Amino acid sequence: MTNTLTYIKAWQKALQAEIIHLKKYGSNKFPVKNGHLLNQKDSYTYYFDSVQTMRIPIGSIVRVEWGQTKTEGRVLSSEGQSIIVKLEQSIGALVSEVTIWHDPWELLDQLIQRLEEVRKSKRKRGRVKKLMDPSMPAQHPADLIKSNVHEVVLRSKYNPITFVWGPPGTGKTYTLARVAANKYFKEKKVLVLAHSNQAVDVLMAEISSFVEKKGRLKDGDIIRYGSQLSEAVERHRLLHMSQLIIKQHPQMAEEKARLLEERQMLKKDLSSSFSQNDSEQLLQIETKLATVLEKIHQKEIQFLKEADIIGTTLAKAAVDTAIYEKEFDIVMVDEASMAYVPQVAFAAALGKRMIVCGDFKQLPPIAASNHELVNEWLKEDIFHKSGVTESVRYGRLHPHLFLLKEQRRMHPAVSSFTNKYIYQSLVGDYKGVAELRNKLVMKHPFPNRASILLDTSGTGAYCLTESSTRSRFNPWQLLLSFQLIHEAFQAGHRSIGYTTPYRAQARLMETLLEDLYETQLKEADIAAATIHRFQGSERDVMIFDSVDSYPQERAGMLLIGKESERLINVAITRTKGKLIHVSNRDFLQKKVYPSRTLYKYLNHQVELKQMVHPYEIGTWIKHQHPRLIWMHAKKLAGVMKDIRYARKSIVIAMPNDKELSEEWKQILAKRSHAVEVIYISEYVPNGIFVNRLMNESVPFPFVCVDQQILWLGLPLEGAKQVKPPYVTVRLDSQAVSEYVLSQIT
């Protein structure tokens, strides 16, 4: 067996290799614009606008690139579609466009330091050894077990390490929450950790709810530490640290809220009209806010000293002395399959006992470097690296691996695939789950159907690669998916999720929702995210957009690569009621090997008659959104009106060797002469005057009016991979129109 010191040395080298890679290449790239120099005392403070929402923690180190100039800086403020950064060198007073690179490598550096502390402690090394080599005999009394919860309680009482295998919907959160509560009732100190804030929120909310129902909840005993106050946590009295601050230190909380509001208003003013006075006020507010936040943090430290159950992320635990300097009776790590092995090892060192919970059939950790140690230790989960999955291959469970076998989340029409093909029938359905989900399944869209394959074959060649990130996006499937969200909302659903393998597509859906669904986002729980970010959460209705389509030559590695089975598994299992799979079946069944999970899933849906054909679009679109209108592509009255009333510009994109019809030439002839016509094609148009010809290859035709109105699929004569009925869609969104134009031109 490998020595613990050898493990630690390898982990530190792996983390260092990942840091070097992130520093050199970066992986999170944000194009920003309209840069203004706010201040140049000691350093250079800049304000930028962004087309899409940015989420970069305050204080993070970023790298800024402007032409040949590269400089580092720190984030002072990042919210919505604006960011303030302090740079080491000037890039000018006014900057039209720059690129900001961000990667949280500082967190990895902190983890290296924590591992060094583990290396120096014999007691902590002993805990890590038991995690990595759980070969000791199980000591819990198996004959006393009464339930799943009771078994985990007994296992974690008598054994130093307990692995809990929790496939989707099998009651993982329910079980862990009651185990944590049991330890709390016995006056044990419990640390709850997870890879994501969402997973921590869900588990801490369940713990608080259970303890409160028992009438044993005391203020400050159970604390969710770190992150913003989420809806899941907000419903529970004094669970989040911010709620405790508001109750016990109201003046500090009020001052913080006032400064945040003032900052938001000033940033809004700056985005519309820049002024030196506003910029100076903004910097003053940032300084005051930093002071208030430090005072609040000191109060938080005191609360944490007295708490019995603390919940936070693995990353937060590794950087905050209030967590990693404490000793706990038991440490519980949820969603452990997504955590780096060194993170779980660090967590093991913090407690006398440990529960590692997750699903090694779901997504593994993500790392950017291809260094051999990174591949070995940062791209595989703790279940595999500790060896507890070995016996599963032979139909047996490791002595320290406990399996939750009955799923209660999904309708059987959804779970039938994962139960059989992912879990090899080790997991089954609770006998009453279909009846439990019928109320959701009965509703539109697609009433009385739980699992739907919305096929986009023959609707066009819309799948592109984002220029800055190489991530794929598909505007046609994006708008179809938004229509599904709209139909679900109109039918009364208030818990709706959209997920996709690609970050570019997920960000574009976020942008679209913020633009078209601002009010509805406040009324309902509607979320758009990558499949990686959706792991650990669930919604009543889920839309899974696989994105890949023509004109791409092959399916993306996310859908066909080594970890594709785990990715597809997560995508399918997020729903409680309906799952709508938006996918180009023709493309994927030609480009994906039959042995791959996605190919099997498409076949499974077709065999069970779950497919909705493209020609059925008129049967399921019941509610046209005023800013997203679907219609027959041969009806040109709408686009004619938009062209006639254009104020500034008309962009027409035509694929190679396609020529505008006489009807279109007549339509364009009626435009105002003050309006600029930009024609995108590799061929010069005949019989029409254009102000600007852009020699670019485009895979699909579109019309964009005033960078606000986007018509996809028109002119129809330019469409490829299209079969009847010929459909076009009109989108009224400046943000999405500008994004599509930026990727084409």
Automatic annotation (TrEMBL):
<dbReference type="InterPro" id="IPR041677">
    <property type="entry name" value="DNA2/NAM7_AAA_11"/>
</dbReference>
<dbReference type="GO" id="GO:0043139">
    <property type="term" value="F:5'-3' DNA helicase activity"/>
</dbReference>
<dbReference type="GO" id="GO:0016787">
    <property type="term" value="F:hydrolase activity"/>
</dbReference>
<dbReference type="InterPro" id="IPR047187">
    <property type="entry name" value="SF1_C_Upf1"/>
</dbReference>
<keyword id="KW-0378">Hydrolase</keyword>
<keyword id="KW-0347">Helicase</keyword>
<keyword id="KW-0547">Nucleotide-binding</keyword>
<feature type="domain" description="DNA2/NAM7 helicase-like C-terminal">
    <location>
        <begin position="400"/>
        <end position="585"/>
    </location>
</feature>
<dbReference type="Pfam" id="PF13087">
    <property type="entry name" value="AAA_12"/>
</dbReference>
<dbReference type="GO" id="GO:0005524">
    <property type="term" value="F:ATP binding"/>
</dbReference>
<dbReference type="InterPro" id="IPR041679">
    <property type="entry name" value="DNA2/NAM7-like_C"/>
</dbReference>
<feature type="domain" description="DNA2/NAM7 helicase helicase">
    <location>
        <begin position="157"/>
        <end position="369"/>
    </location>
</feature>
<comment type="similarity">
    <text>Belongs to the DNA2/NAM7 helicase family.</text>
</comment>
<keyword id="KW-0067">ATP-binding</keyword>
<protein>
    <submittedName>
        <fullName>AAA family ATPase</fullName>
    </submittedName>
</protein>
<dbReference type="Pfam" id="PF13086">
    <property type="entry name" value="AAA_11"/>
</dbReference>
<dbReference type="InterPro" id="IPR027417">
    <property type="entry name" value="P-loop_NTPase"/>
</dbReference>
<dbReference type="InterPro" id="IPR050534">
    <property type="entry name" value="Coronavir_polyprotein_1ab"/>
</dbReference>
